[in-house]
What we know:
This protein is α+β, with helices and mostly antiparallel strands. The protein folds into three domains: 2-174 and 195-222, Glutamine Phosphoribosylpyrophosphate, subunit 1, domain 1, CATH 3.60.20.10; 241-377 and 498-557, Rossmann fold; 381-483 and 567-627, no CATH class. 42% of the residues lie in helices and 16% in strands. The protein is built from 25 helices and 19 strands. The strands form four sheets. A six-stranded antiparallel sheet has the order 2-3-1-9-8-10. It has a six-stranded antiparallel sheet with strand order 4-5-6-7-11-12, with helices on one face. Strand 11 (207-212) and strand 12 form a beta hairpin. Helix 18 packs across helix 19. The radius of gyration is 24 Å and the shape is globular.
Amino acid sequence: MCGIAGFIGPSDQETLFAMTRALAHRGPDGEGFFLEEKKRVHLGHRRLAIVDLADGAQPMVSADEQLVLVFNGEIYNHLELRTELIAQGYIFKTDHSDTEVLLHGYRAWGEEMLEKLNGMWAFAIYDQRTDSLFLARDRFGEKPLYYFHRPGSRGVFAFSSEMTSLLKHPEAPRNESTLALKKYFAYGYIPAPYTLIDGIHKLPAGCSGRLNILSGEWKMRRYWNYRLEPSEYHLPADGGRAWAEEFLELLDRAVKRRLVADVPMGIFLSGGLDSSAVAALAARHLPAGALKTFSIGFEDQSFNELPFARQVASFLGSVHQEELLDLQRALALLPDCFNNLDEPIADSSLLPTWLLAGFARRHVTMALGGDGGDELLAGYDPFKALRAAELYAQKIPAWLHPALSFLAAWLPVSHANMSIDFKVKRTLRGLSFDQPLWIPVWMGPLSPREIDDFFGDKNDLEEVYSEAIEAWEVAGEGASITDRALQFFTRLYLQEDILLKVDRMSMSHSLEVRSPFLDIDVVDFLRRLPPTVKLRGSTTKWILKKALHSLLPATIINRKKKGFGMPIGSWLSSGALLPAEPTAVEAKKFFRQRWQSHRSLRSDERLFLWAQFVLSKVRKHHASTHRK
């Protein structure tokens, strides 16, 4: 796990050094550079050594010096690919470096190599044979990759693992994107290819791109996209037993692959089903006493999961460690949490994820987590709400909806985790719009009408919510509402919120986090299963629960889901958190009204106020970075 940076174009090596060293938290174990002055090629790398500690230094250059690679990530099937390449006559200098596998694999298979990889990656290859720079990002975007392109004979193309690093380049764009900001307040995150800065782009997950160094032409292509392709829609005669067994076998293999490392490792254990499944399967492959688990809890019991984590740790016999977060400690730690966030994410689990990663890093260098399980297996509350929402939309006349929303507004405000009033008001808010917008409006900081008010103009819904609409509609005619929601959560929420958050918060502490649920073999198996084995009646993640019945206690398998958030509603209401006011007149007026309403408990504005709080911190960080 590392940080990569580079550019093609005029500037000096000090710019490359500054860009690369801005990624020091991603790679504290070493740095390396490659410069080719004639072609104006500059590549930099920061290393967090996980595999092949002695021989995995980068940039890595091929024996004939025609290919130069900088790579961030892990290729879990690199040993199988190495065997295949050796059989084709390729000679390896390293003992077990996945970086060298990429170098030889690119020479052997070209861009088709991407389809063979099982892992997480963002890399750049300077190909002197074709005078090109080839960039690629993994299927789900576990590893980040940003770039900007100023074409022309004296143009610049620059890339990096983080936007803050790109801003070290003197030609980097600086102005904020209004459309990206609208999408941020619509979703709570900024979907690729957009970023907060107009002209800086995220290479979308599952995409690659090639720059012709001589002409400056940049071409991007999509080599993979998540798409549900269920072959059946009903349980087989065995009640799904064979499917459950195959799923468990694939997930077990994915966990085993991710345990391979030359450094100490542990498990993020929330006590929820997904992380407990990963811990239970890891216990199969580790010697007694070697399983280490880490958990974070809160004094506010509506957010606290420590009792469940303790139960799982005791059941598995892990070496378990935990920390408790209270308001004062949260406030003391909060400023550091934003130092490497890089772009705004209005996710209330930012701080606990950052704290958990820092806590775990004191003991291990790599950890496994349960990310992806909820999105792939219909684990969130909105999946259960969709059927009731469909019925509501069919039975309740449109003219009656405003009256019901008005009545719901009188429900007493509670800042507890997923309180009844929060769910009811959010659900009714979403149902004011067409189906493709239900989930983003339920989950987003602002509704479409509120976005209009906040920005002081009338917005094009199809433009602001284009990603949600595409994810909903790509499932195809006749697709179930569950499958449409699965497409939304996996294509958008998982990639642009969850994985970005985990990457930033863990790499702030130089900790690598691996996600077994995102193993391509697991994903390909699950996306071909019918939605009825993911959400069966009111039971979420049914196939996973069936698969784990002999590995975990029933109280863990059947427990009610509790999100990994923090009590931002009460912290904002008490004034412990103070969001910065926006500067635009319309936005300032809107903000003040919502701020007063939240503090007086007239309404629950936690998502909007937290989004504004995070945005102000990211802006402040970018401003300080630019000044340095």
